[in-house]
Here is the input.
Amino acid sequence: MSLVHDLKLAAMRVLEKAPDAIGSISSVRTGEPVIVPTFDDGPTPGRTDAVLRALADHDASATFFVLMTSVRANPGLLEQVVAAGHEIGLHGMDHRHLPTLSRAEARDVLARGKAELEDILGTTVRWFRPPHGDQSIETWRLIREAGMESVIWSGTSHDWNPDTTQDARVEKATANLARGTILLFHDGHAGPADLGDEVPEPVLDRYELLDRVLRVAEARGLRAVSLGRALEHGAPVTRPHFNLHPRHLPGALRR
Ligand SMILES: [Zn+2]
Here is the structure.
């Protein structure tokens, strides 16, 4: 038996006992015809502005999970996002895989990221999206301890993937659209400057992608709102979302 296999079994036993208690928000249970677009890694010039234009053209709102490295580089853009009435969540101080950090380090970057963002916004930050979607039970707990809820997604636009077409992205994003779907998009591209992995950025028209997805949603009677707005008349649906690769284990557990 491998270490990974043993860990998966151990985690499954924990999850079976408390499936809801340690889940991340993946969608919203709601009677309202709404979906929740979310945007990671921004704010960044040439990307966030395209997204803001598409949202405005559809009278839509969304939740932006910002990176503090991007916020510091583009403070004016964050102001524009807020002024347009969108909701802000935290994606991190930087784009490191949280489960690779020591417990003390992870706790520190979550607390400092939240404090710095709240200082700029003057409001409480409720939501956290883990960089790379990577999460261990320990980092999930630390997100909670920092006073935030972990938010993942139930649909993705594949706008991070350079090896696909715009048509395929629209199809992916809209295939299973339903009331309460949380959709993953990006309005930035995290890289080594954000202490993230070096990955190629796809060349795509982010306005066109979002415009097309929102058109399909509207044709199905669904309109786009922020997570906070959707939860005013709905309840969070949570599911366990953990990456148990040994590379992502807390320092103390790494071999
Ligand atoms: Zn990211």
About this structure: The radius of gyration is 18 Å. Residues 103-121 form the longest helix (19 residues).
